[in-house]
From TrEMBL, chains A, B:
Pfam families: Amidohydro_3 (PF07969). Keywords: Signal. This is Amidohydrolase. It comes from Blastomonas aquatica. Residues 77-549 form the Amidohydrolase domain. Residues 1-26 form the signal peptide.
């Protein structure tokens, strides 16, 4: 009686697009470029023209001798610039980046005095804010030889609570007003997994790891409009740096709702692969299984982020042996083996991907053991991820490849951490530290990211670090543990194809093969040929996502 | 340099659809029908053919003499059946309906013994369920003269907790195991806004209004898969009854996530206008403003549902004078005036619509006063809604029209409640009870719904009630307070165009004017001509949403 009862709208639109479109009508061409991408196997493919179809996907890659399509909807002359796939940041905190862009940033300060000056100026400029919130301080960088104190802060902001997160997010610094507002008593005890810094037995102002929440719980929650503003600030920043996709590590339901608002209102451009901040958030966000890809491959809840230990700087990373600079301490274990297995099992049983934060060698071994146990029951393409994988006992490295475990690492951490890592670990335990090349040689899938806002999300700093293991100052000359330097193609791979693979997205973006989303950047340098210094300061000229330009650098810089 | 940088995919698809589509290609025709719809002003429009465009919207309405389009993608012969707009239920509980379809239903029981038999059978059939959950009991219908007790339940299910909601959702009935699991002590006190029924001073098993949570808090939460199953069960049920849209009253974030999962996976067909269950849920779901219409007008968070009082049956409705059958009691006030103003203001400041549950005349007066106060600050098209508006002091009726307040009412409640209402109010206070016609005459916008699962969602029972004010048994002959009967067109209006208007959807669905979503039903009776009895038992033959058939009755009934 009725010919069709399918969802006709979609089927018809698709049919019209395929049947009515005469060849090349409404396609776009980016021509005269020094184009490069990796293919599905990681081999470099060069091209001089890129044809984009109506869906915003790559239609064809053209070499110089190929005939150009005649009928085009638009055409861009790339003026010989390098065109490469948009960068995928395999580990970042989108809302954290957004809020950090909107709040007081102390990461550039070189002394306590400089920081206090910035804090006072910010408080004076924002008289209506009930709390002064900031982040990015690092007493190591200040050469202070101690943690800062509440008294330091009270001298510049006595009247309002001040709460400032350390650069690694693993410690917070409060003034007296903040401790009072939070009800921190002089005899407050260290919570499990946390430590209160003390002077004369009383809280001195800095709260480490689990102790952070003693103050943080009283910080007013951001409103939904604040979250929306933070997302847009983060997105603009990422696109300007050439990042077209990012794995969001520790997504909350409120974060997710902000992403959905942006998607629903068609202002979500950057592709977000979300990992919920714990099992409860995972279920609240996605329910019984990972979400589908939403908004033309711009958002998906892939799985869950789990924390095994803290950071090396605050001696929270869990080590197999004592800290070299603090005998008797081996870091903070966030979960025991049973708890870890239970959480990972809860995720895996419903096909959620697990991304486990492990910094120290003991934490890495703990999650490796858990994966080996779970892999017996949960078969198939699981893509277990270890986030950071900073300090690995060399004997554990083969265990990654055995279960196809992805090492999700951040090259810039190596640059920032090297002196601290030497102090914490001593020279004898550096063989498996930031061991990119050893992992690649062991056939471990590598994904690179920035850990923004812990570090700048600028991927060119990351690429330069990956191939040199030198800082921006050229130190140490020839690279720190130089045997772990990567080749340029390997480094680009980990920041594009590898990062997409780590998020189950390698058939959607991360390369520019035909059929993939046309996510690409135009650069003022060629990353395969430029000096490391030029690569580190490379500027993105244009960023395109899904065949639409979403960022363009101002001219005449 | 570049012709366009807009979101090209969408623009191009739209351009192709409009330019490439030759006239009538790929349109559909529903022909040979006895078609009726209201126009934008509520006037009846008749037609014999309906043309549906590629978008699933109404393209044209054809009269018998009109030429039919020549090129069609599909054609349906309506065989002379009545075609009318899909019903919009202005007040229901989608997940409540779904769970009620999946759980023990006591609403058909006529005696306590019959109910206990069903409970025992259900417990025996479901040995693995840790709690036995049900709803729908009504001690008034049982002629019990008292509330049932825990001891009644213990006799049939002694070993597992049992928790059964009353038909109106305003009381719960527990067995001893449930009270023990919930930790209800023999000396438990009545919480504010609630009452524990007692025997010899000890909790007897029934918990009224706010006291319900003393037990309900311990009921295991449904899992996401349970929610998904409940949504699909509810949707199937609604579509089979000819309901293509519904206002969901009291949406939680978990409900919302289930609706989004269905939308994301393209299995959400029924149109849901959601009203969050409180300010916190409103913000969690929508953030800084109502959501856009999602999934081709199938989901939107319109606003917030607020509760002012309880139900008449359990004497929770807030009255201006004492209950006739319980002197000294005037019901339960859920919020004071300041709290109500604060909540309504919080919603209105961000353009959220307010739907305020008010049953008793005092509760209606309270919300009317609040709206009058807020209307000074919050201008524009607010469409304040009062849900139920069951008992209105006649002096308050003009106050509805003054601020364009929508009376969102449920005709079947009048049928179920009339004897109870007479007992609670006495005959002297019935003038403003279920006063549909008085409200229409006062030019108050009327929206009709079912309050499912409190009542059956069957809209034909509601339509029959609206025009007769007689029960299915024909009692009382000529109708209860018959001056409040509505005309057929008025009743259909409130169940279609009026219900859509109440949800800011009148330009999207609710009528079949050109440009509206093609949501319609084919019926085995003509609601404008059939006897009230035939109308009450009308059967839906087909239900179409957005130009796609989503329900078809089995043949040969």
């Amino acid at each position: 009686m009725i010919a069709r009862t399918l969802s006709r709208g979609f089927a018809l639109a698709a049919a019209l697009l395929s049947s009515a479109a005469t060849p090349a009508l409404a396609d776009g061409l980016i021509d005269n470029v020094n184009g490069m991408t990796l293919d599905a196997k990681g081999k470099v493919v060069n091209f001089t023209g890129l044809v984009i179809d109506n869906d915003g996907k790559v239609k064809t890659l053209l070499e110089r001798r190929d005939k150009r399509p005649e009928k085009l909807d638009y055409k861009l002359d790339g003026e010989g610039r390098t065109l490469m796939p948009g960068i995928i940041d395999a580990h970042g905190h989108v809302m954290g980046l957004g809020f950090s862009l909107l709040t007081l940033d102390l990461s550039g300060t070189r002394t306590l005095e400089e920081a206090l000056g910035l804090i006072k100026a910010y408080a004076d400029e924002n008289p209506s804010r009930p709390w002064i919130i900031g982040r990015g301080w690092n007493q190591e960088k200040w050469g202070l030889g101690r943690f800062p104190t509440a008294a330091d802060l009270d001298a510049v902001v006595p009247d309002r609570p001040v709460w400032l997160e350390r650069v690694d997010g693993h410690a917070g610094w409060a003034n007296t007003a903040a401790m009072q507002a939070a009800g921190v008593k002089p005899d407050a005890k260290d919570p499990p997994g946390g430590r209160i810094e003390r002077i004369g037995g009383k809280p001195a102002g800095v709260f480490v790891d689990a102790a952070e929440s003693l103050v943080a719980k009283s910080v007013p929650m951001p409103r939904a409009v604040d979250r929306d503003a933070a997302l847009i600030a983060a997105q603009d920043h990422l696109l300007a740096l050439g990042i077209t996709g990012i794995a969001d590590m520790g997504t909350s339901i409120d974060d997710w709702q902000a992403y959905r608002r942006a998607g629903d209102e068609r202002r979500l451009y950057v592709r977000i692969m979300a990992y919920a901040g714990g099992i409860e958030s995972m279920v609240a966000i996605a329910g019984p299984r990972p979400t589908p890809w939403l908004y033309d491959d711009r958002l998906r809840l892939n799985g869950v982020k789990l924390y095994l230990d803290g950071a090396l700087g605050s001696r929270g990373a869990m080590l197999k042996a004592d800290y070299a600079d603090k005998p008797g301490e081996r870091g903070l274990a966030f979960v025991n083996d049973t708890q870890l297995l239970n959480m990972m099992s809860r995720a895996a049983m419903d096909e959620f991907q697990v991304a486990a934060h492990a910094i120290g060698d003991a934490a890495n071994a703990q999650v490796l053991s858990a994966i080996e146990e779970l892999a017996k029951d949960y078969k198939g393409d699981r893509r277990w991820r270890i986030e950071h994988a900073q300090i690995i006992d060399p004997v554990d490295i083969p265990r990654f490849a055995e279960n196809g475990i992805i090492a999700s690492m951040q090259p810039v951490h190596q640059i920032s951490d090297r002196l601290m890592a030497e102090a914490r670990l001593g020279t004898a335990r550096l063989a498996g530290a930031y061991a990119w090349k050893t992992l690649v040689d062991a056939e471990v899938p590598l994904a690179f990211g920035s850990d923004t806002p812990v570090e700048s999300p600028d991927p060119f700093a990351g690429l330069a670090a990956a191939i040199t293991r030198e800082g921006a100052d050229g130190q140490p000359f020839g690279g720190w543990q130089p045997q772990e330097r990567l080749g340029r193609v390997q480094a680009i791979d980990a920041f594009t194809r590898g990062a997409a693979y780590a998020g189950f997205a390698e058939d959607r973006f991360g390369t520019l093969q035909p059929g993939m989303r046309a996510d690409f950047i135009l650069l003022d340098v060629d990353p395969l040929l430029s000096s490391p210094g030029d690569l580190r300061t490379a500027k993105v000229v244009e960023t395109w996502v899904g065949g639409v330009r979403r960022y363009e650098a101002r001219r005449g810089r």
